[in-house]
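> tool_call: predict_assembly(chains=four)
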Amino acid sequence: MSPAGIRTARTTAEPTGAQDRRRLRARDRRALIARMVQTDGAVVVEELARSLDVTPSTIRRDLALLTEQGTIARTYGGAMVAGHTAEPTLGQRSGLAVAEKDRIGRWAAARIAQGDTVILDAGTTTGRLAHHLRGRTELTVITSGLTALRELAEADGIELITLAGTLRQVSQGFVGPLAELTLTRLTADKVFLGADGLDAKLGICEASLQQTALKELMAQRGGQVYVLADSSKLGQSPFTAWAPLTGPWTLVTDSGATDDQLAPFRALPDVDVVTA
Amino acid sequence: MSPAGIRTARTTAEPTGAQDRRRLRARDRRALIARMVQTDGAVVVEELARSLDVTPSTIRRDLALLTEQGTIARTYGGAMVAGHTAEPTLGQRSGLAVAEKDRIGRWAAARIAQGDTVILDAGTTTGRLAHHLRGRTELTVITSGLTALRELAEADGIELITLAGTLRQVSQGFVGPLAELTLTRLTADKVFLGADGLDAKLGICEASLQQTALKELMAQRGGQVYVLADSSKLGQSPFTAWAPLTGPWTLVTDSGATDDQLAPFRALPDVDVVTA
DNA sequence: CAAATACTTGCGTGTTACGCGCAACCATGC
DNA sequence: GCATGGTTGCGCGTAACACGCAAGTATTTG
């Protein structure tokens, strides 16, 4: 840690090894930091100081400069990627009923046992479910959702399988013939589906037939079927594409659901209704 | 300012309208904060405390809770929208030769024309390539890499297709029979492969046969084949699994490569060598 | 209706990170 | 060789943070 020692070492460094010792001062270091933030998403002051061999003070100065420049955004102990100002697609949707979705996801996660293989649909609610699976072991998760993928990408104990397909931006999920092709090679113990709207008779409502087709196939490929839908989705039909639910299934919603909303589902013989 | 006033109002509230009156505290406040962050992009602790009439401590608690949920991201004096950041735990595994990888990626991105369909291998270098494709239009990108997926998930003009498969954590890519199955349904104009090691005679070296098998298939499925490998990979064979390169291909590396490293590749008739 | 329980909030504590000024240092150019 | 501008490390005071405690409130239970 003695600065004198470092400087002595630097001054006595041979000019022969020109490229390996004295590199990375100021400008290059900042560019490197900026790129690291972009790549990793977030960095920590102390780690940067250690790996770049400078004091935290210097790192802070760099971060302040880059923040001024708009390249990055400062956090408490470090920095992260600058906010994409506003994100209309996913941002608005995930902003609503976060707590409800989280509770639903937590309840669903508790239903998954060690050794299980589960299919996770795309969507924010299933993303929360995935979040609560982190740290679990001996689990196989099959998913078509980018949100769940992000949550579990670093989870050690979980075997993560993705479906193929083309990315649908608004729902952040993979759909299409390739996704369906992949599913024909897989089955699971439990299936967790999301929904843009849910009707007791018609089933799950989505914006496109691609999505409903995939959900239908998912339901066929799994043992127990759970539909995760917060109370704002019940009885709604915002779109015109429907995925009927033939076999027995479980509706998981939040305590904000009214009896009027739940009655049609409770009336069905094959449907189990749960409020998380 | 007076909590007594609010509380009086709460106690006098009728039990009939049980759900509509009694909350503006805790739960709803957090939902409100989440929404404010989403709309405004960033908020400040002190301001929130003043406008919501609670102490900064409470706001901090709320922010900590919402951060845990993943709804927002904490900054120094406040909070901001959660850019789709990976966990800070990810660290700087990709800290080596960032500048070189980036230059290689940029050069490769320039080779891709409007209307092209390209296959992107997993890896950090192809991740940089993907980064430089953001903002492009009329492009179809097929990838097995989570890094490239993250880069292009929000890119409007690009049709993004993922291969199926099980996630290989160390390389952040999808491999296995499902990935190969998906590839048999696709072809592309250009293929960009990464490499853990590269030998002029043996081909691409990887840690597992799953990876080499996939790379081999990728090369077959695309027209022009590019291998992106910074100079530290040339002539290296860190593992024992190999993907031979049969057809003509282009090696893209950085200017740090020595003539000794490049000579074996230049000697091959079917190989084009480029330094970015 | 009263007691018990869970939750929330404000305040005080110590800890951590931050920003700024100073002096020494290095790399340029004249 | 000397001067100049940019960089770096260090110490200081300040601001933001995390944690624990106690008081108050809402919800549940008998």
